[in-house]
Amino acid sequence: MSLSAPVNDSRRAVEWWRDVPPPSAEDLQLEADTLWARELGLLDGDESGDERASGEFSWAEIDKSTDIVDSDDDPGGDDPAPTAHDGLTSAPQDGSTPTADTGEVASAPILDDEADVDDLLRALEVAAVTQRRATAEGYRLIALLVSRASIDPEPWVGPDPTLDGVGSDPRRRGAAAIARDRRDLAQRAAVAEIAVRLRLSEQTVRVRGSQAEGMRERCPRTWSDFAEGRASERHAVETARLADSLPDSPETWAAFDDGASERARTLTPAKFVVAARALRERVHADSLEQRHARAARDRGVWVTAELDGMTTLSALLPADRAHAAMARVDRFARHLRATPNEERTLAQLRADTLADLLDGADTVDGARPGSAPATATATATASAATSTASTPATATPPCRSAPRPPPHPPTWPPHTPRRPARAPPPRAPPSS
Question: Fewer CB under 10 Å: which end of the chain, C or N?
Fold first, then answer.
């Protein structure tokens, strides 16, 4: 709920208090603290705010302290009092504390460092609930703006040129094609405008709008918890992601929503992720084979740049192949860890072994980054039953930060001699 703009003759309407000095910031803060304390029942009438109720806040008290207060005290008004489900109004741009006089959220007072521990914890709870509600309102507004841009593109791309019937399209498109392009351009313009104002990427804006629409359609109970501040943003995002993977079945949506809502109120985000995934597996109507076949189409490998010349290599693979690859890397790393004078950790050995396996090295010796391998490639003769290690190669000394490699680290896996190649049969002499 926002304040209306002053009328044109506002100077005459406010001349009666022209000489009254405006309230100071301390007065406004004191008024905000008093209203907040009265909302919580900490103050009755003219009592001071020294006597505070003991114990933790209940959800009813937190809801009351962060609810939207109606600015119209007239009982005969036609407009109903807004609730938490209606969303939050924007916070003041000057950083002041919203008060009940403006019809905005009554936030917790700013306490000093010497305040009581219970008071600080209560204020922290109220601040967390207020922040979650504001975040949910941001998701809702993004989805609303993008949806309205598709329904009414005129505020974003101008009037429809096909209504007057006079203009001609240089691309010779029909009215349906023009309307489709206008809707698409309006959505793109709305997303770009939101991204600039919020300093977010356009992809982030689209994802948040899609997640809000999906939760309001498929998981209304969890969305209501998010809007009321009972669930965090991570709870809501994970719920939206899992609900988007469910089949188009209202019964499946309702079963998942009921379980996710109960778990989101009691579990931390990390535990909720595990529980929500298990719940999704139980309520999904499709078989595991069908879902695995669809999910395998998204497999891929990508690289993410890190700091100081490092990079994260990620791969999305079927679970059986990923575990088999990890088991092989771990087996090589543990073999190298058992060698004498090896000081690298098992995690470092796994990384070095994976690099040896992927960059085409002839041996898996787990060479350290920044140093050359300590041995040359093992060779074998055609008649030998076992492999014969080659003479150690003269390598550049490793970097000082890494320990010097052992002089003769074993090669793993053990080299298996190849069978001698058969000589090709003699060619028949050409016929004369």
Answer: C
Residue 276 in contact with residue 242, Cβ under 8 Å? yes
Distance between CA 253 and CA 220 in Å, rounded? 10
The pTM assigned to this predicted structure is 0.58
pLDDT one-digit tens code per residue, 268-296? 999 999 999 999 999 998 888 999 999 99
Which among 418, 60, 430, 44 is positioned nearest to 52, based on CA atoms? 44
Those residues whose C-beta lies under 8 Å from the C-beta of residue 295, and which sit 6 or more positions away, are none
Cβ–Cβ under 8 Å, residues 90 and 74: no
Please write the tens of the pLDDT for every residue from 202-257.
Answer: 999 999 999 999 999 999 999 999 999 999 999 999 999 999 999 999 999 999 99
Helix, strand, coil abundance in the chain, percent, nearest 5: 50, 5, 45
Q: What is the pLDDT of residue 423?
A: 61
**pLDDT, tens digit, for every residue of 302-342?**
999 999 999 999 999 999 999 999 999 999 999 999 999 99
How crowded is the C-beta side of 100, counted as CA atoms within 13 Å?
Answer: 20
Containing 422, the helix (H) or strand (E) segment is: none
Summarize pLDDT for 129-155 with one digit per residue, the tens. Answer: 999 999 999 999 999 999 999 999 999
Under DSSP, is residue 104 helix (H, G, I), strand (E, B) or coil? coil
Cβ proximity of 66 and 73 under 8 Å: no
Both tokens of residue 292?
């695995």
The DSSP result for 338-358, as a single string, is: TSTT--S-HHHHHHHHHHHHH
In sequence order, which residues have a C-beta less than 8 Å from that of residue 354 and are 6 or more positions away?
329
**Structure token pair of residue 389:** 């290690």
CA distance 168 to 161: 8
Amino acid (1-letter code) at residue 61: E
**In this structure, which amino acid lies at residue 375?**
T
Residues 6+ apart with CB under 8 A from 11: none
Residue 37: which H helix or E strand, with range? helix 25-39
Do residues 28 and 91 lie in contact, with contact meaning Cβ atoms separated by under 8 Å? no
Amino acid at 191: V
